[in-house]
């Protein structure tokens, strides 16, 4: 029997989980378990896009020289994607969660575009934040954020169940940070403790919209909020990771890609740093 939905989380009505099966070792996805757990907690509808990356016909040089091996790989990956969808649907039924699945077999980048289109039709998308062995993983998160207009929760390995008792809001005074905090409001209201964390030197903190000025907005929405201004230790990403451990955070809420993706690619950035190594799931908005 399903558990009653949290009154605060009832603002979440539908959740999309997107995975892309690239090879036959892609059997365990933290995003799937996390999304199912969140949908159960919120009493929300769960949609799973379990796509397989189809290689055959994607490039003429592959099709011209292939002896049938690539097509056979495509069939095996499609079967694996369908098996994941069937297993998830069964787990959802046992948990009392209404679930729909789709299992497209698509070329790159059609998988990514399909995911972004589907995300527009849901309150949020939940994706894996695994060690990137291929641009497909990075593009799934970035394209969904830039083209769906919806927030994304990026789930690192080891987090197969939703938790949201203690949440950090990374605050730099930007429009992206304000958007992320307001998109995450159902989670913030349901949390036992929320900490606004501003990181920077004295001049940077002084010249931005202070977290102390943003805190009353959250408090008026029933959020149990405190403010913590921190100096940079190493880098902003390292400081935020460290504070997440000290605060025992279940989730970090932050505005994503304040600078362009091109600048982040060449010069690095907080978003990419945390996606590559984060102790807890990231709630991202742009």
UniProtKB/TrEMBL annotation:
UspA domain residues: 166-284
Pfam families noted in UniProt: Usp
Entry-linked CDD domains: USP-like
Family listed: Belongs to the universal stress protein A family.
InterPro entries: Universal_stress_UspA (IPR006015), UspA (IPR006016)
Superkingdom field: Bacteria
Identification of the protein by name: UspA domain-containing protein
Gene3D superfamilies attached to this UniProt entry: 3.40.50.12370
């Amino acid at each position: 029997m399903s558990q009653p939905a949290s009154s605060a989380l009832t603002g979440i009505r539908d959740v999309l989980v997107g995975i892309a099966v690239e090879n036959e070792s892609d059997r365990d996805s933290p995003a799937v378990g996390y999304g199912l757990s969140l949908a159960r907690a919120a009493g929300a509808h769960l949609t799973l896009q379990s796509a397989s990356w189809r290689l055959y016909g994607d490039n003429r040089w592959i099709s011209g020289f292939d002896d049938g091996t690539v097509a056979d790989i495509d069939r095996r990956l499609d079967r694996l994607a369908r098996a994941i969808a069937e297993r998830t649907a069964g787990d959802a039924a046992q948990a009392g969660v209404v679930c729909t699945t789709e299992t497209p077999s698509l070329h790159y980048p059609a998988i990514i575009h399909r995911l972004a289109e589907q995300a527009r039709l849901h309150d949020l998308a939940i994706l894996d934040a695994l060690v990137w062995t291929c641009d497909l993983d990075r593009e799934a998160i970035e394209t969904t954020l830039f083209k769906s207009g919806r927030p994304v929760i990026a789930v690192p390995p080891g987090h197969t169940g939703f938790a949201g008792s203690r949440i950090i809001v990374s605050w730099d005074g930007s429009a992206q940070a304000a958007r992320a905090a307001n998109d995450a409001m159902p989670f913030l209201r349901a949390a036992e403790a929320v900490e606004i964390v501003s990181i920077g030197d004295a001049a940077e903190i002084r010249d931005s919209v202070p977290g102390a000025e943003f805190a009353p907005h959250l408090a008026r929405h029933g959020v149990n909020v405190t403010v913590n201004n921190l100096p940079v230790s190493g880098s902003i990403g390292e400081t935020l990771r460290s504070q997440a451990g000290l605060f025992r955070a279940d989730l970090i809420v932050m505005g994503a890609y304040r600078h362009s993706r091109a600048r982040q690619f060449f010069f690095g950035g907080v978003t990419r740093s945390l996606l590559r190594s984060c102790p807890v799931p990231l709630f991202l908005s742009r």
